[in-house]
Write a structure and sequence with these properties.
Elements (H helix, E strand, L loop, with lengths): L1 E6 L4 E8 L3 E9 L12 H23 L8 E7 L3 H18 L3 E5 H7 L4 E2 L14 E6 L4 E6 L5 E6 L5 H11 L6 H9 L24 H16 L6 H29 L5 E5 L6 H14 L2 E3 L11 H14 L17
This protein binds 5'-O-[(R)-(carboxyoxy)(hydroxy)phosphoryl]adenosine and zinc ion.
5'-O-[(R)-(carboxyoxy)(hydroxy)phosphoryl]adenosine binds next to helix 4 and helix 5.
């Protein structure tokens, strides 16, 4: 089954061609994130205008790179929620029009389900990894700029939300921390790079939701602690040199990762039949989080996976094509899948 996947929920415009929900034949990503370097975040209307400019050329390039024409497609999958409404509407309106014109089934995909499916993707450079197929039940930590969710997955369509953030998302914590440290947007990769040269034990941050036994997350207090730390250092007339900044970044990164790992550990102890832990979403690109999750997996004898390349951690059309394929295969009827384009969360 060959599916074209379209993702336009934020500042990335992506189209990808995926075979059987796994083999990525092409994945083109145009991003306007550089336009927002100085603003500390995405400006929704500007992002939507960029989506409009990019969407058709990106689709054309994805078909060419896959070496196919639209006649070869079995379906089109598109992100319909959640995200920036203007950006989402560019993707869904384009997808509805192409599905009608080319006479293809149209599959609406929730953005989170896309991220959850990203661990199935195989790069066409590494087809031998096809044998390494994920196995349910899976505990999936989906962490991005828009959400931080912990899922218990028993199949592609049986997903139970175990916990979620009550304020900022983990990626947002990275991005806001980066702004405070004077780093460019998107802050996650920049903060992680700075943290590499720092001492993560030097500036201990408070433990988030220390007495809360739920599986929810909270990150906004960390950002406030960072703000006060920087304010107090400035008030004490302490010169913050490059080494100090790196250690502040490393300590802040460790606090975010510790909170995520603590919840993963609680969840794995509650669900002993889980076979795999998956890290997905933009923050799954973080190397510190990966190494800590790997250690947790070893401790509990479960396989740990994250997307096979960084491109599949952040927003991309391939994960939408994969999720669309699995939904299409598992759907019970041949009725067209009706949907509304929506900014609202909730799978
Ligand atoms: O999944 P994604 O591309 O978009 C959303 O759905 O939000 O995630 C983007 C988020 C941003 O907050 C970005 O700072 C974060 O992922 N991110 C990282 C890293 N790479 C991207 N955070 C920490 N470490 C990284 N290496
Ligand atoms: Zn995302």
């Amino acid at each position: 089954m060959i599916v074209l996947g379209l993702e336009t929920s934020c500042d990335a415009t992506s189209a990808a061609v995926v075979e059987d929900g796994r083999l990525v034949r092409s994945c083109i990503i145009a991003s306007s994130s550089n336009d927002f370097t100085g603003s500390g975040g995405v400006i929704p209307e500007q992002a939507a205008r960029e989506q409009l400019k990019s969407i058709l050329p990106v689709i054309k390039r994805s078909l060419e790179a896959a070496g196919i024409s639209h006649h070869d497609l079995d379906a089109i999958a598109v992100t319909h929620a959640p995200g920036l409404l203007g950006s989402l509407l560019i993707g869904t309106t384009t997808a509805r029009t192409l599905a009608l014109t080319w006479n293809k089934p149209l599959i609406p995909v929730h953005h989170t389900l896309g991220h959850l499916s990203s661990t199935w993707l195989i790069d066409n450079q590494k087809p031998e990894t096809r044998n390494q197929k994920p196995d349910f039940p899976i505990l999936a930590l989906s962490v991005s700029g828009g959400h931080s969710d912990l899922w218990l997955r028993r199949s592609h369509t049986d997903n139970k939300l175990l916990g979620s953030t009550i304020d900022d998302a983990a990626g947002e914590a990275f991005d806001k921390g980066a702004v405070l440290l004077g780093l460019p947007y998107p802050g996650g990769p920049a903060l992680a790079a700075l943290a590499e040269k720092g001492d993560e034990t030097r500036y201990p941050f408070p433990k988030m939701l220390a007495h809360d036994t739920s599986l929810n997350f909270s990150f906004s207090g960390l950002k406030t602690s960072l703000k006060y730390l920087l304010r107090d250092l400035a008030a004490a007339d302490t010169t913050i040199n490059d080494e100090d900044r790196a250690s502040i970044a490393a300590s802040y990164q460790l606090a975010i990762c510790n909170h995520l790992i603590r919840r993963l550990k609680q969840a794995i102890e509650m669900h002993s039949d889980v076979r795999e832990i998956h890290l997905v979403g933009g923050v799954s690109a973080n190397l510190r989080l990966r190494s800590m999750t790997e250690a947790l997996g070893k401790e509990h004898g479960v396989i740990v996976r994250w997307p096979s390349t960084i491109r599949y951690c952040t927003d991309n059309g391939a994960m939408i094509a994969a999720a669309g394929t699995f939904l299409f295969q598992e759907q019970q009827s041949n009725e067209p899948m009706r949907f509304v384009t929506s900014a609202a969360k909730g799978l």
